[in-house]
Design a protein that fits this description.
The protein has about 290 residues and is α/β, with parallel strands linked by helices. It folds into 2 domains: about 5-80 and about 175-285, Periplasmic binding protein-like II (D-Maltodextrin-Binding Protein, domain 2, 3-Layer(aba) Sandwich), CATH 3.40.190; about 85-170, Periplasmic binding protein-like II (D-Maltodextrin-Binding Protein, domain 2), CATH 3.40.190.10. It has helices at about 15-25, 40-50, 110-115, 130-135, 165-170, 190-210, 210-220, 230-240, 250-265, 280-285; strands at about 5-10, 35-40, 55-60, 70, 80, 85-90, 100-105, 120-125, 140-145, 155-160, 175-185. Strands 1, 2, 3, 4, 5 and 11 form a 6-stranded mixed beta sheet that branches. The protein has a 5-stranded mixed beta sheet with strand order 8-7-9-6-10, with helices on both faces. α1 links the parallel β1 and β2. α1 crosses α7 and α3 packs across α5. The longest helix is centred in the C-terminal third of the chain and has 20 residues, at about 190-210. It is globular and about 55 Å long.
């Protein structure tokens, strides 16, 4: 009997791109049926803490809060390399130490790094699509833009600080900025979890191999908020060959992120990311 897997992801272009090769039937799903659920990333973070979905996109910065209930997947990962979310303000605005800032969610990675760097700032949380206007209108002093909004924002605004620069200051040089990934519920049988991870890895591979065709289809079906050159630029940043499977350098960056969280009292102990991945040796033993 085929198994149905709930696959929850955000409606952002990189998530859509990485999962829709499966949705369009371009990947062998080995008899599994995937039920796509699209929600904003902070809602997904909160639902993950409730254990709602089988597989869910999450912010890397909140993973230690769900590590007992979810394992991290090696695929569909987004890291920044010299770029990432941006703290923006109006050009005519000077920020005080306790400035009021709009963030896209308490549990996002960018919020974790922001609060660590600006402990006296006063965060308010809102949908990321509302942040730019909140800054323009003066409802907040500044805001952290994420996703596609980092590429094109109102000309009255300017960048106060790149989250990438905050990451480098906190973590040191040479590590990519961890942003988001996927987690799978531990209550799924291990052999099923391995199957699902391999299917998702194939999905991201195929998406990259058929990038032009997939982008054309996503735009034609109105599944993404940006198009043409902006879409290509955004996917080159967050949904590329670097998204297929966690590298040793990416694992090192995650370990550093979780060490920082421990040092700033966000969780009780540092974690080694590799200990929370699905054990590949199980499938290798089964095949012997």
């Amino acid at each position: 009997m085929p198994h149905t897997i709930q696959l929850a992801h955000s409606p952002d272009a990189d998530d859509i791109f990485m999962y829709y090769a499966i949705k369009f039937g371009w990947v062998d799903t080995k008899g599994y049926t995937f039920e796509n659920i699209g929600l904003d990333i902070e809602t997904l973070n909160i639902e993950a803490m409730k254990g709602t979905y089988d597989v869910s996109a999450i912010s890397f910065g909140m993973y230690p809060l769900i590590k007992e209930e979810y394992a991290l997947l090696r695929t569909a990962v987004s890291f920044g390399e010299g770029y990432g979310p941006k703290l923006i303000r109006r050009q005519d605005k000077q920020l005080k130490r306790n400035f009021k800032v709009a963030l896209s969610g308490k549990y996002t990675t960018n919020a974790m790094l922001f609060r660590t760097y600006y402990p006296e700032a006063r965060p308010v949380y809102m949908d990321f699509l509302e942040i730019e206007e909140a800054v323009v209108s003066g409802a907040v002093d500044a805001g952290v833009l994420i996703h596609e909004s980092i590429l094109n924002f109102d000309e009255s605004l300017e960048v106060e600080k790149e989250i990438w620069d905050i990451w480098v200051e906190l973590a040191g040089e040479g590590l990519p900025l961890p942003l988001g990934g996927m987690a799978i519920r531990r209550s799924l049988p291990l052999n099923r979890a391995i199957d699902v991870e391999n299917i998702l890895i194939d999905g991201v591979k195929v998406a990259n191999e058929k990038k032009d065709e997939l982008c054309t289809k996503l735009e034609a079906d109105n599944l993404v908020r940006i198009s043409d050159k902006l879409l290509t630029k955004y996917l080159d940043m967050y949904a590329s060959d670097e998204s297929v499977e966690l590298s040793a350098l990416q694992l090192k960056a995650l370990d550093r992120l979780y060490q920082l969280g421990f040092e700033h009292g966000l969780w009780e102990c540092p974690i080694k990311t590799e200990d929370y991945l699905i054990p590949k040796e199980y499938s290798e033993l089964r095949e012997q």
